[in-house]
Design a protein that fits this description.
The protein is an alpha/beta fold and 259 residues long. It contains eight helices and seven strands, in the order βαβαβαβαβαβαααβ.
Length: 259
């Protein structure tokens, strides 16, 4: 299927690895001009080379911390006439809600709510003027089913979801869509880091713990970043112009919702 993305300009936050990289890879393969983002220049350059080998458009890098105002200034100064914005950032840490301070909450809200809102506000008028725009927010399955001990994420991402529930309807008349993709458990460095920590605490091997984790998922496996990227690319395509304001789970059936 031709997705109609050739020549479109796309900025993908936190795309040097993981599911952000999966999104950038899929968009580049469809002919979009992609700006990669991350904080480690070496990782970014390696990802640029990897994606550049399969890209049908230009692939550039912007090394900055997108969760800072100066980082956002730099990114948007280097990305002209954006057609596609993929908001993505690492989630807050796991822990006991009794331990969180106001500074912890401010950090979570800044990274996972206020940053994507600010980026959206800065690019939306250009999208409206050009009569094409696709905004994808990478959030979490916790938006549908809050996850115990992820209280910072539950709160920040739910706030983001509430904001875009209204904003997406306001920009829909201009062929600008806003959707969120809610990942379950994906085979990424972040998953393996958290599993390694849990394995150490439980005095188990990482392999055994990963296998146990898969058994809780109806699909009996973790998702791949490329699967996530394929969904992102479709939602950015010309075929998805009638899909907006949605929160789409991609989790192998892990979250069981009430009918």
């Amino acid at each position: 299927m031709e997705l109609g993305l050739k020549g479109k300009n796309a900025f993908v936050c936190a795309s040097s690895k993981g599911i952000g990289k999966g999104c950038a890879r899929a968009l580049a393969a469809e002919g979009a001009n992609v700006w990669l983002n991350g904080r480690d220049p070496n990782t970014l350059e390696a990802t640029q080379r990897e994606i550049g080998a399969i890209a049908k458009g230009d692939v550039a890098i912007i090394c900055c911390d997108i969760t800072t105002e100066s980082g956002r200034d730099k990114a948007l100064n280097e990305t002209p006439d954006l057609d596609i914005l993929v908001n993505n950032a690492g989630g807050p840490p796991v822990g006991d809600f009794r331990e969180w301070t106001l500074d912890d909450w401010r950090s979570a809200l800044n990274n996972n709510m206020l940053t994507p809102i600010d980026l959206f506000q800065r690019v939306i008028d250009g999208m409206i003027e050009r009569r094409f725009g696709r905004v994808i927010n990478v959030t979490s399955s916790s938006v549908k089913a809050p996850i115990q001990h992820l209280d910072l994420s539950n709160g920040a991402r739910s706030g983001l979801t509430g904001f875009f529930a209204g904003a997406s309807r306001q920009v829909a008349p201009f062929n600008v869509t806003v959707n969120a993709i809610l990942p379950g458990r994906f085979d990424t460095d972040r998953l393996r880091t958290s599993m390694t920590r849990a394995a150490t605490e439980a005095d188990e091997s990482i392999e055994d713990l990963l296998e146990k984790g898969k058994q809780h998922i109806p699909a009996r496996r973790f998702g791949s970043p490329d699967e996530f990227g394929a969904l992102c690319a479709f939602l950015c395509s010309t075929h998805a112009g009638y899909i907006t304001g949605q929160n789409i789970l991609i989790d192998g059936g892990l979250v069981a919702l009430s009918p």
